[in-house]
Amino acid sequence: MNQYAQRVFDDLKRKDASQPEFLQAVEEVFSSIRIILDQHPEYEKMAILERLTEPERIIQFKVPWMDDRGQMHVNRGYRVQYSSVLGPYKGGLRFHPAVSLGMMKFLAFEQIFKNALTTLPIGGGKGGSDFDPKGKSDTEIMRFCQSFMTELARHIGPDVDVPAGDMGVGAREIGYLYGQYRRLKGVSESGVLTGKGLGYGGSLARKEATGYGLIYFVLEMMKQHGIDPQGQRAIISGSGNVAIYAAEKAQANGIQVIAMSDSRGYLVDEQLDLSVVKQIKEQLRGSLEQYPAMAGHGRWHAGSVYDAELEADLAMPCGTQNEIDAVRAARLIDHGVRLVAEGANMPDNNEAIALYLQNGVLFAPGKAANAGGVATSALEMSQNSMRLFWTFEEVDDKLRGIMISIHRQCEEAMRQYDLDPKNYVAAANIAGVQKVIDAMIAMGDY
Prior knowledge:
The chain is an alpha/beta fold. It is built from 18 helices and 12 strands.
């Protein structure tokens, strides 16, 4: 790490000692951009890194709501408006018991550079609550969303901050949030939230976008490195939208998906029937444990899929942060994995990433590989602004073009800075961070 970066990082460790996810994300970025900092010593005088790592605004608020038995509950709500130098804050809302300020800062920090790589005019932000939607009725979720938006509404707007969905926040939750926003504001501002239903300003292909975009990026990597996707065996952790639609696009391109997982365990099936997975997750809202009985084949196991002894060529972690540590990364490498692409945000810890790079594994970091979701959210914003509605094929074509562009930016960074052609971590960080720094300097925002 550059001496200036180390000083800033040490200061962050002192101030934010209780935020390990945030510190992990900063360390990964700082370690990757040493070459930029060495070439631009003037950045220290400008306090560029201090400005990059300090959010423009953090909003924390209480969210009181009543359950169906008349019992009152109070959760915490957050919105981290990290950087607006490239456009309005853009990033999802996450409802999950593990949500904390540190997690929101990590996700928002990553979002800045992910959004920069899309080349679309959007800044970085993230929000959510420690509310757990699992086991809640529709009316309980509606009451919670209405209470959450009652406070959030004063801090967002189509040209200020545009939240989207994330873990625990799908089309149902976005609908309740948008309905409350309209009641509070008394106007139709469909561009204030993305991930909306198709009947009130949503975009086709949004549900599929992150998973499809992940595979578009993987296919570009394969093409660049002379790998034929046909017959490649893939492990995909997770079974939400990202995992399901990554599996769908992977299968459409000849990649054999042999395993998927959820919070209860993992499924192994050499002839994976994705229609059954969709039925379980999208209709029944159940566990993949039901899959073998419903499909008539496949095996269910408790535990993490990354603790299994599975021979595979690709791994695409699409679950949650820090799924894979050095031990699990070593197991993947020992069992033949030669390409890892992150569908989730920071599912590999820094030790796992170092191990991939040391062993010549192609590794696609989330800020590049899973940018398809926010890119399509920005396309939804464009449709809302122009009062247009694009076809699925139009949105999907634009999404594919954006993912190819992100890969091209990584290639250009590799060439410009003479990086290892397999080091997509440094390339993505350099390309994204430099865009943000250039905009900061151009506007005097330092």
